[in-house]
Amino acid sequence: MQYTDYSEVIETISELDLVKAQNVINNFNRIEAGTLHMNEDLEVMQDEILELFKDRINLDPEDFESEEMWKCEEVFNFTGNLLEFKDFDNNNFRVYVEGELNPEDGGSDHILIKFVDNITNNTYSSYSGDIEVYYGYLNFDEDGTPSDGIKHNFNIELENILEACEDVYNQIKNQIEKEKATLYYLINSMGL
């Protein structure tokens, strides 16, 4: 049987009869001898099989909502987090801003884009990225004609932020793949 989700497997185990539960245990013990124990009580065997699944699979799909695993501001904001990811172990990665904009003719501002990474524990540099804003100006002579000036400009450096986001994405993806592989290993080993 091909399962589409974790809850289907749990439901199948809960519906095993005595003979099928014994077959599941025998199948699994051929691969991992002595891991599961036979019992005359069906509920005890079902509970032991379910407990094995819960012990080996760290990700319970019913315990998380993907919408709660990441948050992103739609508008650039100088307060709070711009972006936050959480993994299945409740570690987080967050991107935030330090600095402020004070527009002044001919002036400039430097905004630091920083991150804290508790998911992959990668560190890059003292800051992760920045935005430099150069404010333009225009001078006029005594006749009101523009005499000199400079156009506004800005530079954005976010390579470290993008690299860190990709690392976090890959870490979470690998975590999902590992859990999926464990789930399929258990399903196949038990002959479910």
- Output the number of helix runs: 4
Specify the structural class.
Answer: alpha+beta
Silhouette: rod-shaped
Strand order of the largest sheet: 1-2-3-4-5-8
Oligomer: single chain
Mean pLDDT: 85
Rg, nearest Å? 28 Å
Explain how this protein is built.
With 192 residues, the chain is α+β, with helices and mostly antiparallel strands. It has helices at 6-14, 18-31, 42-56, 159-190, and strands at 70-72, 81-86, 92-98, 108-117, 129-134, 137-140, 146-150, 153-157. The chain folds into two domains: 6-63 and 180-190, no CATH class; 70-176, no CATH class. A hairpin with a 5-residue loop joins β2 and β3. α2 packs across α3.
In short:
The protein has 192 residues and is α+β, with helices and mostly antiparallel strands. 36% of the residues lie in helices and 24% in strands.
Secondary structure: elements and pairs:
Layout: H1 6-14, H2 18-31, H3 42-56, E1 70-72, E2 81-86, E3 92-98, E4 108-117, E5 129-134, E6 137-140, E7 146-150, E8 153-157, H4 159-190
Antiparallel strand pairs: 1-2, 2-3, 3-4, 4-5, 5-8, 6-7
